[in-house]
Amino acid sequence: MTQFKAHSPAVATVMIDDRNSRVTRWDFEPGAETGFHRHGLAYVVVPVTDGTLRIEDAEGARDVKLTAGVAYTRDAGVEHNVINGGSAHLAFVEIEIKG
Known about the structure:
Layout: E1 11-17, E2 21-28, E3 37-38, E4 42-47, E5 51-57, E6 60-66, E7 72-74, E8 79-84, E9 90-97
């Protein structure tokens, strides 16, 4: 696997964690990252701010534009590192769906 440059950590705030879902707000200063991880659950992301995510995975790195309020979903099993690729604060809410 490709090794990527380390950044400061994003801040994760768990808002709900019950038998149905886990809801986490992620806050990123410019350059902050989640760290490489694998999603064990399907999830929905709802951006709180506009911004640019830099996604790093086994395929390499790419930038993805986020628009506040425009949600997207991913299946369980996604493996990646997520970095704030912009110059302003970035935030989104991640909703993991428990089976």
